User: Which sequence fits this backbone?
């Protein structure tokens, strides 16, 4: 029966493959001509996107089939394909289309009109097997497509995350398709597919909302290594309108140049900096007072009240530089009016003087040639405007404005604050004298904790000149990456439990609509802040305006290993239960005690053995920070990482070195929880004694 099914699906795959090639050819022909107007340009952009999507969809083009209780048959795949006949049902349903949803969510209890779900396994353009799941029978364990899922989970790891569109589970699918109108915070234990969900959600949102594709989506991850690990998922799903970054790399042109202590990371992550920096930047504004400007050899005094009024209206709701531009424009206007008025007064005085002279000589005060009371020489409106333009273009006036209201470099402005204890005490009175001393003692290069402060200052100062936007055309992600002030359609944060309050502010600035998906595990938090609940972690940034969701099943770590995590989680102060492991690897975790002197040798031997056992897969080593360097020297061909660095990654086998040493690190129990849960198959522990 299966042979027939394979044959049947092969026929369908051949049909879909041919149609894909045909559509790609048609699109290529359409894309060969140039756009003549903006409308055509945007149409071509969409076609180009579609073309790329089709080209990339060669692997796993068709992976599912839905048989309706009414006898209907629909196939689900990586992209949607239409037949020639536009009115007919699509040949292939895109996995993100609403009609494909039952593939991920239908169960025997909630059949959604289906009689059967079929998973189709393929290699390239060959169907290698099918898994049928009747939905009209008795209720099953609740896993969707269990056979296909367990086969996928048991596969060797390549070192890069792959797409899982064929085996997404219902609780994951619910989050992927959730509304994107406000912040959604997803709590999930290790291996529950948080990263999978976050990335597939990006693909879903870009497919569903054109606006997000136009504005790009930002994906924030904890480290460059992690970004590299997930880097192939979205391109494989055909998505390019995505910028991936860490909080450290979000500011164009600014690099983190040094490590910082946990104490300073904690101090600099506090929400108090936002109002402190606002107060500081406000203090940089010029004070109101009369202004004395020179124009055409004459001095003009602008009264303090006029300056105060112009200043107040310029500053309202604007950044420092934007307010400066608005004020300068007003000043040009005021000065032009003052020049015109002074000229008028002068003319009047001249006229009065002339009449005096005439009176003294006993002449009547009738108008005389060129000196009538209609005061010839008073500037017309156009002339005042022209004068204002000349004032606006005048380098001398620009110098005057610069001296009175200087443009500022955000980096310099922040350095001036962080290096000055008196200023810090004035603007951040919540900091203790010891904390201020610790901040001011830091070297001038930037650390990770400085980046959100710098971003806040850059935002409060604003751009010096408007119109720095890059020219239109080219991929949207490139524009977004280059501009600090880019507003994204959506932001996805992975390992969100690590974000400090100030890093959250940095996210909000990039997404004022608050269309944000944050996934993480509060129990894996290792950052310097002390949050142990999501409510605490996001209180300063989001208040209580966010929606919570949860993932409860662990797909990565086998049951044998998850069983070890309960006590570790309890020591980490967690109130959560570890997620339920979906599978067992049949391999008991092992533990070897060695002397400290034997440790490096034993580690090398264990790595050698694990690599042999997991040939074609991956092995990773996690150790306390203090031992990493020494181990890297002896363990070649495998990553040797701290628990923090291992966050989000996975290997077939993990060698955990000195678990007690990891537990003794700051937030070490959380770190140990991370380290224990990185393997998909086997966990070995080397415990030094003495
Ligand atoms: N529905 C699924 N089908 C197939 N594989 C899945 C599915 N969900 C998760 N996985 C796999 O489980 C592993 C863990 O997923 P992921 O890295 O997204 O979990 P996580 O919750 O982010 O974990 P952690 O918090 O430990 O980093 C990955 O190998 C992923 O491909």
Assistant:
């Amino acid at each position: 029966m299966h042979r027939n099914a394979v044959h049947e699906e092969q026929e369908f795959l051949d049909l879909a493959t041919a149609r894909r090639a045909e559509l790609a050819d048609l699109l290529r022909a359409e894309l060969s001509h140039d756009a003549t107007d903006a409308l055509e340009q945007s149409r071509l952009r969409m076609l180009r996107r579609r073309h790329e999507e089709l080209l990339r969809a060669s692997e796993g083009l068709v992976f599912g089939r839905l048989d309706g209780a009414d006898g209907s048959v629909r196939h689900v795949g990586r992209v949607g394909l239409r037949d020639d006949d536009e009115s007919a049902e699509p040949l292939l349903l895109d996995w993100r289309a609403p009609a494909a949803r039952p593939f991920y969510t239908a169960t025997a209890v909630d059949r959604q009109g289906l009689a059967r779900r079929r998973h189709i396994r393929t290699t390239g353009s060959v169907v290698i097997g099918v898994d049928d799941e009747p939905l009209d029978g008795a209720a099953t364990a609740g896993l969707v497509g269990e056979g296909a899922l367990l086969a996928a989970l048991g596969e060797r790891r390549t070192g890069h995350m792959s797409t899982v569109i064929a085996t997404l589970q219902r609780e994951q699918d619910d989050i992927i398709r959730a509304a994107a109108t406000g912040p959604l915070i997803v709590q999930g234990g290790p291996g529950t597919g948080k990263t999978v969900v976050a990335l597939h959600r990006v693909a879903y949102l870009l497919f569903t909302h054109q606006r997000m594709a136009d504005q790009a989506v930002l994906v924030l991850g904890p480290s460059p290594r992690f970004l590299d690990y997930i880097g192939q998922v979205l391109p494989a799903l055909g998505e390019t309108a995505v910028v991936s970054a860490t909080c450290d790399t979000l500011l164009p042109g600014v690099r983190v140049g040094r490590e910082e202590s946990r104490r300073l990371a904690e101090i600099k992550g506090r929400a108090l900096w936002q109002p402190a920096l606002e107060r500081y930047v406000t203090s940089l504004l010029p004070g109101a007072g009369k202004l004395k400007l020179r124009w055409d050899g004459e001095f003009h005094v602008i009264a303090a009240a006029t300056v105060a009024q112009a200043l107040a209206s310029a500053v309202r709701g604007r950044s420092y530089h934007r307010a400066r531009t608005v004020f300068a424009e007003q000043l040009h206007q005021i000065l032009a009016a003052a020049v015109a008025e002074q000229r008028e007064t002068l003319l009047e005085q001249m006229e009065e003087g002339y009449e005096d002279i005439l009176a003294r000589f006993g002449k009547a005060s009738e108008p005389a040639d060129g000196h009538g009371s209609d005061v010839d020489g008073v500037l017309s409106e156009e002339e005042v405007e022209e004068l204002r333009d000349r004032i606006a273009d005048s380098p001398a006036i620009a110098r005057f404005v610069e001296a009175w209201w200087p443009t500022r470099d955000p980096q310099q402005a922040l350095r001036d604050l962080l290096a000055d204890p008196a200023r810090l005490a004035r603007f951040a009175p919540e900091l203790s004298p010891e904390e201020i001393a610790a901040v001011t003692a830091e070297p001038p290069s930037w650390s990770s904790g400085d980046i959100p402060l710098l971003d806040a200052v850059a935002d409060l100062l604003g751009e010096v000149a408007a119109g720095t936007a890059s020219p239109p055309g080219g991929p949207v992600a490139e524009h977004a990456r280059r501009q600090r002030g880019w507003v994204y359609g959506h932001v996805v944060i992975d390992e969100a439990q690590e974000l400090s309050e100030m890093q959250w502010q940095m996210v909000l600035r990039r997404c004022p609509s608050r269309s944000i998906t944050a996934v993480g595990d509060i129990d894996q938090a290792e950052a310097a802040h002390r949050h142990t609940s999501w409510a605490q972690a996001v209180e300063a940034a989001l208040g209580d305006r966010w929606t919570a969701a949860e993932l409860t099943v662990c797909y990565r770590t086998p049951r044998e290993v998850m069983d070890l995590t309960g006590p570790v989680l309890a020591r980490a102060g967690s109130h959560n239960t570890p997620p339920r492991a979906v599978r067992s690897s049949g391999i008991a975790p092992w533990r070897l005690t060695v002397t400290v002197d034997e440790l490096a040798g034993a580690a090398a031997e264990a790595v050698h053995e694990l690599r042999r056992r997991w040939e074609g897969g991956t092995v990773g080593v996690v150790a306390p920070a203090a031992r990493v360097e020494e181990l890297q020297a002896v363990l070649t061909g495998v990553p040797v990482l701290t628990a923090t660095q291992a966050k989000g990654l996975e290997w077939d086998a993990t060698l955990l070195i000195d678990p007690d040493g990891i537990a003794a690190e700051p937030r070490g129990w959380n770190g140990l929880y991370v380290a224990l849960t990185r393997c998909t198959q086997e966990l070995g522990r080397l415990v030094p004694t003495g």
User: Anything to note?
Assistant: The chain has a mean pLDDT of 89. The radius of gyration is 34 Å. The chain is about 45% helix and 15% strand.
